[in-house]
Amino acid sequence: MTSIGIFGANGRMGRALVTVAKEQQLPLTAATVRAGSDLAGTDAGELAGCGKLQLPLTETSLAEVEKADIWVDFTMPEAMLAHLQLAVAAKKAMVIGVTGLTDTQYAEVQAASRIIPIVWAPNMSVGVNLLLHLVQTAARVMGQTADIEIIEAHHRFKKDAPSGTALAIGNSIAKAIGRDLSQCAVYGREGITGERDQQTIGFATVRGGDIIGDHTALFADLGERLEISHKASNRNTFAQGALRAALWLKNQQVGLYSMQQVLGLADLT
Ligand SMILES: NC(=O)C1=CN([C@@H]2O[C@H](COP(=O)(O)OP(=O)(O)OC[C@H]3O[C@@H](n4cnc5c(N)ncnc54)[C@H](OP(=O)(O)O)[C@@H]3O)[C@@H](O)[C@H]2O)C=CC1
Ligand SMILES: O=C(O)C1=N[C@H](C(=O)O)C[C@H](O)C1
């Protein structure tokens, strides 16, 4: 059976991945932490709080990357790109959930996908991937007159804004109604902004406490409004999606795949 490795296994998502891999009895053969981390040697399961796994966390290296067939990465952009180089060198497939990538960083992922199979998605949950379709229907019906706003809320530790999911929702809506998000997005408002331009797509970001991840697409017209919302109540939902993607990826050729493809939703209209 295909073996799985986790980069950044001490992170919030890293620990969720270890927990779900154990629940699903998947062959987790490597779990790494950054070079020099005090956590090297600690049992991955004990750190994740799911009981001993007899799998010590190790410092990331090419030799470690050789120990698993498919690697899952929920770290940070720079770290992920360094991990990607190791995966390319070892010819290992990767599932990447990291958000906040610059265009240049995303281009590096695209380039690597010409050598290894990669799934990249800003949200691995089934619900959000379905929502990406539902908002397109709403946009086609209401988008010519309604004001469109995307509201997201996350925990205080999140480093990027707006969330990768919010941007994906914005792109999905823009595509459905023939707008270019880079031209019509408004990422914040302050002062005398003037009346709202109906052609814009607005984003609002909330950060606080331990909110796992909430997203709402709001279609606000005169007299009525439609809200399509998703709320994650547990990181395991993302981890389950990522591990599903890892198992799916073992049968794929080199290329860059989306979670829509993993879930069989790519052709949904
Ligand atoms: N696609 C999806 O479904 C989801 C995506 N995400 C995304 O996943 C990413 C991680 O989120 P989260 O788990 O909350 O983050 P955490 O901060 O909890 O974990 C980040 C991990 O990356 C490691 N890391 C950070 N910087 C470096 C570096 N320079 N070199 C090596 N390792 C590094 C950390 O190690 P250390 O502790 O040593 O710093 C840690 O293991 C974010 O981009 C987030 O948006 C999150 C949830 C779902
Ligand atoms: O950082 C997080 O926590 C999350 N990040 C992802 C994003 O930026 O969209 C997905 C999820 O909402 C949790």
Automatic annotation (TrEMBL):
Its main location: cytoplasm. One of its GO terms (molecular function) is 4-hydroxy-tetrahydrodipicolinate reductase. It catalyses: (S)-2,3,4,5-tetrahydrodipicolinate + NADP(+) + H2O = (2S,4S)-4-hydroxy-2,3,4,5-tetrahydrodipicolinate + NADPH + H(+); (S)-2,3,4,5-tetrahydrodipicolinate + NAD(+) + H2O = (2S,4S)-4-hydroxy-2,3,4,5-tetrahydrodipicolinate + NADH + H(+). Residues 127-263 form the Dihydrodipicolinate reductase C-terminal domain. Keywords: Amino-acid biosynthesis, Cytoplasm, Diaminopimelate biosynthesis, Lysine biosynthesis, NAD, NADP, Oxidoreductase. NAD(+) binds at G8, A9, N10, G11, R12, M13, E59, G97, V98, T99, A121, P122, N123, M124. InterPro entries: DapB_C, DapB_N, DapB_N_CS, DHDPR_bac, NAD(P)-bd_dom_sf. The keyword Oxidoreductase applies. Homotetramer. This is 4-hydroxy-tetrahydrodipicolinate reductase. It comes from Rheinheimera tilapiae. The lineage of its organism: Bacteria, Pseudomonadati, Pseudomonadota, Gammaproteobacteria, Chromatiales. The gene is dapB.
